[in-house]
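Is it possible to get an amino acid sequence alongside its tokenized fold?
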Amino acid sequence: MSTTGTTLVIGATGTTGIRTAAQLTASGHRVKAASRRATPVTDAEPVPFDWYAPATHAAALDGVDRVYLIPPLGDSDPAAIMLPFLQQARTSGVHRAVLLSSSAIPEGGPAVGTVHQALPELFDEWAVLRPSWFMQNFTGTHAHARSIRDEASIWTATESGRVGFIDAGDIAAVAVHALTDEQAPNTDLLLTGPEALGYDDIAAIITEVTGRPVVHRRLSYEQMRDRLTTQVPMEFATLLAGMDRAIAGGAEDRITDTVRRLTGRPPRTFRALLEREMRSRS
């Protein structure tokens, strides 16, 4: 690990941001924890930051040499706001940027794929994290977690397609490596957990570990899109439903060794994560 200056963690109260900030500070790195309300984060300096309020950007970047980028949630064209910010970051002294993208979005693809494509032109040191779906989608505040709690159901248009679900803590571990290692990855990193699971499998594991029956409810693409439009804008709902359809076609049925290769330990299984959650609640 190299001795770094200060890392700006955008979305520092979010699923991967809070874990990345915690792992950085635990390793002795200085962190500015950016969120809209400058929410306190242990051992980090809280700073106000809003993608859509450019007046907050300069102060957040002050004294920073590295940045962990969480795109604005639900924005189908994040490049419009992110690229001007990244140009400002480079001018202000940031030399390494690590972007959170998705396994479903390639370089130059829709949404954050445009930012991915631009990153190597802006920074000599960079990485794009492309994780599969988060295991925390079933335990936190995500729509799946809510429907599990409220309806004992998981609703998708994925049919029997499988996904290499990944623990957000493992994503954060790779983010810390990409931010602090002597040599930046200078590539995109496809991140998965240790096994590919269908949503039927996920429901079965939740049922076994928690003792509460949960089922996977299969919807058509159109039904899923319409269900999502009650939660997010139509354009984003269409994108998300399309990702479900891609899963049904096998697009996410893969496993990589990236977590083990970069962190030196295997990624956590979904069953292990659930069992840990159950222990923490007891």
Remarks:
- The longest strand covers residues 125-131.
